[in-house]
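FW: tagging you since you asked about this chain on Friday. Here's the raw sequence from the shared folder, copied in full. Didn't touch anything.
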Amino acid sequence: MPSEEELLTRQMPHSTEAEQSVLGSMLIDARCVPEVIEALRPEDFYIRQNREIYETIYSMFNFSLTIDPVTVLEHMKQNGVYDENTSRGYLLQLMDTTPTAANVVEYIGILKDKTLLRRVAEAAGDLTALIQQGTETGQDILEAAEQRIYAIRQGRAARGLIPISNVLIDVYDRLTELAASESAIPGLSTGLTDLDRAISGLNKSDLILLAARPGMGKTSMALNILLEAGKKSGKNVAFFSLEMSREQLALRLISSECFVDNKKLVTGKLTEEDWEKVAVAADSLNRSRIFIDDDSSVSVADISAKCRRMDNLGLVIIDYLQLMQSAGGRTYSGENRQQVVSDISRALKIMAKELDVPVLCLSQLSRANESRSDKRPMLSDLRESGAIEQDADIVAFIHRPEYYGINQDENGMPTAGMAEIILAKHRNGAVCDVNLRFLKEQARFADVEDSMLPPAQAAESQQAYDDYASGSNSQPGTSGLGAAMGGEFDVNRSTKIDDEAPF
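HL: got it, structure written out here
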């Protein structure tokens, strides 16, 4: 009767000859070792004895040790995988049966193909077991299948512990990449200098939540970032709009790009100069890497599936969280809706990790801040679920005093056109406030000192702002722009570490 190991050997795809030839090539010619190490992992070897030999060579290579039959045998003894009766003879057999080390690339290709087949078979077995349990819906199983296949396609296992040594190699590569980069920030730029400085750009696997009350400019900010990333990052950017149609989004993008009043674009009342600006903007957008989806009934699973089919993906933007549906396309109300929002926010974080791209998700705030004298939003204002702030790596609020009829700040500074980005949570940095200008006519944000700012809504406001910026009208004991803005509006106002982050 065949043993369990023999049964597994029959069932799972593998190539004994290819495994032996790869090991034999490394023993015959040590110059093959770096090429093999770069391409294969120990789990690519299905036969246990072959895997143990490769793990020994893998470890020796990490410590820059000499690799030949004698040294490998010695380290096998040290690692406790040496068999007095078989190990020496098996290593000699590997060298004798290997045709030539020159064909090691072909041997590697065979092993990788067999590994791929095994992972597909394992995924199929897990999914079959999940179906037989009968505890999951068809949509849940479909999402699980997509996750497993995507993980396989990316060349990594969906589950399992990874040695820290492997992680350190990835970290070193990332640090080397950052050191060689000319960019001042590690992540994608938002196009807003002060905001980039505060959050270090939009970084891979981060879930960034941008929340505000209706009319504050959430979509405008998202489109600003969309334009910057789609034009300059060299990567594809996906924008999922559950609220606006793609035609409306296109008009907003054109308005932001060419500084033509959005109302003119909506009504079509354009001057000849406006038409020229629109043509230039349209040409620029046509050459960008922006992709838009305006399906109003998408779930996280739908978004994840669409993004996985995109090559060179750099950023995902979703407008907005509360309009999304559950995995099965169902909607709930009341307490059940809170659970759904919690599940959605968690799924978004998982998606960001799996796609290895930043995910920017917009969110509505509750009316709680409108009942307070201080209208500045806080984490407790997040609508429907406290789980949102736990899952997000960055939580940012948009606050415009002008929106609430506040014409001057506490220092007497005019608030016309002013906007404040409140970083209420930053898992990898400090929380702070960032000052921006909101250009209402073009529905876009700009740096305070942006030279392309249009005329201020009020000449008096603009003049006062310029006076403060130059320091000519400073308060006692203060000077310059930062002083004029006041502590509440200073980008460097707060340097406290985020206490909300779980780790």
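FW: The two ends are 53 Å apart (CA to CA).
HL: agreed, and Confidence is low (pLDDT under 50) at residues 328-335, 451-503.
FW: great, closing this out.
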